[in-house]
Amino acid sequence: LEPGPKAVMITLNGYACQRRTPLQHHNTVLTEALLVLAENAEFCEDEGRNIAFKRAVSVLKALPQAVRKMGDLQGLPCLGEHSQRVIKEILEDGKSREVETTLQSEQYQAMKSLTGIFGVGVKTADRWFREGLQQPSDVARSGQRLNHAQQAGLQYYNDLNTPVTKAEADVISRIVEGVVQEVLPGAEITLTGGFRRGKQTGHDVDFLISHPEEGREEGLLPKVVSLLETQGLLLYQKTTRNSYLETKEGPARPPSNMDRFERCFSIFKLERPRHSTSPEEPPQAACEESPRGEDSALEQLAGERQDWKAVRVDLVVTPVSQFAFALLGWTGSQLFERELRRWAGQEKNMSLSSHALFDNKRKQYLRASSEEEIFAHLGLEYIPPCERNA
Ligand code: ATP
Ligand code: MN
Ligand code: MN
Question: What CATH fold (topology level) applies to the domain 16-102?
C-alpha cells in the first residue's frame, strides 16, 4: 500500500496560557457552535460544562488550520466527549442538532436577552424568566424593583448591545486622558481589555489609571468621576474604593477572581459623529446635556435614536507597584486569565491575582514591573496581548 500524505499532527499544550491564540482563526463554524453550548451551560449555572466548552473552543482557536476530519483532533487537549460529538456532527452534516435546538429554545433566547441588560446576571435573569418575563420590554412593563445599574441597563439597552468600535474607544481614550491630566498631571492611562488584544470592537472600553510615583494615585478616581460628571459625560457610574491589603501570610483565601482596586463601572455619553464633509472625522464627546430633556426609560427600547451613544467604560486605578499585575489581569481574555491562575496554583504552587503573585512554598511575594517578568516568574513563555485571545 502506498502511504497516503503524511498526517501532520498538531500538538498543543493543555493550558491556554501556554498557547498562542490569535484573534482571527480557522475554525469559527465550530467555535461559534460550541460557544452557544457554553453560554447555555452558563445560563443553567453549570460552571463545569461552561468551562469545558470554553476550553474546547480555545483549543480550536489556536489551531493553525481548519479541522476537516475527526482525525485532525487526535492528540489535542481539552476536547471532551461532548465537544467531539458536536464537532463530528458539524463536520458530517454541516450543523449540530443540539446547537440548533438550543438556539431555538425559549429559555436560551430569553436568558440571552435578559442577561444582555447591564446589571443583570444569570440568577436575576433566571428568576425573571420563571416569572414569565422574556425581553427587556417585559421587564420595563412588569414594575420589577430595579437597582440603579439595571435601570440604566434598560434605559440604554440598544446602545449597550451595539458593539463599541475602536474609533469610539480612541475618542473615549482622549476624553479620559484629558480629564485625568487635569486632575493629576503626570498620571498615566492605559487601554486594556479586548482592545489591547487587538479586537476591533468590544462590549466596553477598559482603562487602567496609574501614576509613576507610588501613592499619588490615591483619591484620584472620585475627582476624575466628578469632573466627567460636571462635563455631562456620564450617564451612570458606580465607584468602589480600594480594599486591597497585603499580609505576610499571602493573599486571603479563597482568592477571589474579583480584584480590589479602586474602580468605576460607568456609562459614557458619547456624541455621535455629525454628518459632515469629512466622513472619517472621529466622533466627538458630548459636552452638554441632551437638549431633548428628560429621557424616557423606554426611549431606547422604542428605537428612538439620539445624537449620542451610551458606551460602557471601566476605569481601574492601580498603584504603580501593582501595575504589571493589573495590566496582565485586565487584558484578558477571561479564559486566558482563568488559565493563568490555574497554572500558577496547580503547576507552580503560587497565587496570582491582578494585584500580586505569591509563592506559597517560599511564602513570599514575587515582584514584577512588566508582564514579561510575571510570565518568567510563572515559568511560562511570554505571550503578547494579541495572542491572548483564548
Ligand atoms: P469585551 O471586548 O467584550 O469588553 P474584554 O476581554 O475586554 O471583552 P471585559 O469583561 O471588559 O472583557 O474584561 C476585561 C478583563 O478584565 C478580563 O480579563 C476580565 O478578567 C477582567 N475583569 C473584568 N471585570 C473584572 C472584575 N470585576 N475584577 C477583576 N477583573 C475583571
Ligand atoms: Mn472590555
Ligand atoms: Mn470591562
Answer: DNA polymerase; domain 1 (1.10.150)
